[in-house]
Amino acid sequence: MTREDIDRILAELGKLVCKTQKDIEDARIAFLGKKGSVTALFDEFRTMDKEFKKEFGKPLNELKNTVQSKIDELKSTISESAAASAPKQDLSMPGDNFELGSRHPVSIVRQEIVDIFRKFGYDVAEGPEIEDDYHVFEALNFPPNHPARDMQDTFFVSAGHLNPILLRTHTSSVQVRSMESMGLPIRVICPGRVFRNEAISARAHCIFHQVEGLYIDENVTFADLKQALLLFAREMFGPDTQIRMRPSYFPFTEPSTEVDVSCNICHGKGCNICKGTGWLEILGAGMVDPNVLEASGIDSKKYSGFAFGMGLERIAMLKWQVNDLRHYFENDMRFLKEFDSAPEV
Ligand code: PHE
Known about the structure:
Layout: H1 3-15, H2 21-32, H3 37-46, H4 50-85, H5 105-119, E1 123-124, E2 130-132, H6 133-136, E3 156-158, E4 165-167, H7 172-181, E5 186-195, E6 207-218, H8 222-237, E7 243-250, E8 253-262, E9 279-288, H9 290-295, E10 303-311, H10 312-320, H11 327-330, H12 333-336
Parallel strand pairs: 1-5
Antiparallel strand pairs: 2-4, 3-4, 5-6, 6-10, 7-8, 8-9, 9-10
Bound molecules: phenylalanine.
């Protein structure tokens, strides 16, 4: 080893140019790695005589330190320039605007109805939208050739079986499932989507929503039905609301009735919403037909009950005076935003 060896390495170090972290690592290996030039001098140093060691000990250590600090310096300049070229965040930029949704009018009405009946002690029951003929028709006392089973009204998923699979046309199917599975007495409301093969117009749609209710116990009478619906109507439409019942027909109730509420817009005087009658039709109801109770294994001599059903779109149309049912399905934000905090009429 000579002084020149040390000077040569120092000269190489002076000329060193590194552009990337990898260049620096290569240089470190070339000088200080196992087979590096500085390491080689140290290996030689170990074999030297004492005198030589005295002469070269200090400069050799200085060389090693110089190389090490040069490498450290290169490392820090490269990471600084990487940080400088990284895209800067402008902290003064305005944030992203999130558009907040609002509740759909049909959901608002459903929640109101569910809340009212919950206060009366009803539970909420749900069932499948794809149902079988038995739960939608058969168990509800529809005679085999009842017109509602006709292809005109029902969307069949697979027809032609003894028990065809179809899209439920009303949530009365959930009432059947409740009678099958719940112990007596039963007090349930069944909110849900229903499907009917109807031409879409301002007054009809092939998909809509219902809430149906069922109450079965000993000694349930028509007077109980009337009282439950009157209380519901007053909670829903205001304390002065009157109800009117007209005879009707449903296969699953006997007697059956169509229920109107007094028009809360003209208060009975007659307006274009109630078409001059002072009354608005809102639901169908009746005493559960004994055949329906027996079909689900309930003793119709001991138990009786009532059922009712209403369309949510219709109630929402009356509540907010919306004149076209199709608005509820088109998802126009301008329409949907009207409701969450809209005052009731
Ligand atoms: N299921 C009936 C319908 O969809 C409504 C109804 C329910 C009528 C319960 C009477 C009793 O039109």
